[in-house]
Inverse folding.
């Protein structure tokens, strides 16, 4: 998971949706790091309704998995706030212990979160 400026996690599915909606996506060369090699893509997305833009790169390994996402998010019209993010994903496929929370700690919503993108 990637954290947003509001510390709300962004799932890989949401990240993929943002990239697909981007105004420009282009191949930006090769990528390598822990766990293998792949292709780096550069993207830019503008969201005029919320006065926000996101640009950066995403590294995809040879198996189609996101390995690194570098983003710069700019928000605001008059006083711009810029946030840089650079998470790297590793140990893909490793077992992760999970404990199911008690029912009283689970919140169900009828619509998706619509806050900050990153």
């Amino acid at each position: 998971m990637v954290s947003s400026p509001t510390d709300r996690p962004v799932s890989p599915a949401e990240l993929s949706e943002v990239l697909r909606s981007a105004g420009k996506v282009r191949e930006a060369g090769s990528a390598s790091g822990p766990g293998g090699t792949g292709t780096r893509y550069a993207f830019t997305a503008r969201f005029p309704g919320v006065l926000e833009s996101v640009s950066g790169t995403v590294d995809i390994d040879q198996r189609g998995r996101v390995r690194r996402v570098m983003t710069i998010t700019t928000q605001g019209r008059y006083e711009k706030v810029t946030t840089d993010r650079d998470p790297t994903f590793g140990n893909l496929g490793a077992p992760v212990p999970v404990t199911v929370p008690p029912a009283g700690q689970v919140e169900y919503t009828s619509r998706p979160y619509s806050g900050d993108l990153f």
Observations:
- The two ends are 11 Å apart (CA to CA).
- Residues 12-20 form the longest helix (9 residues).
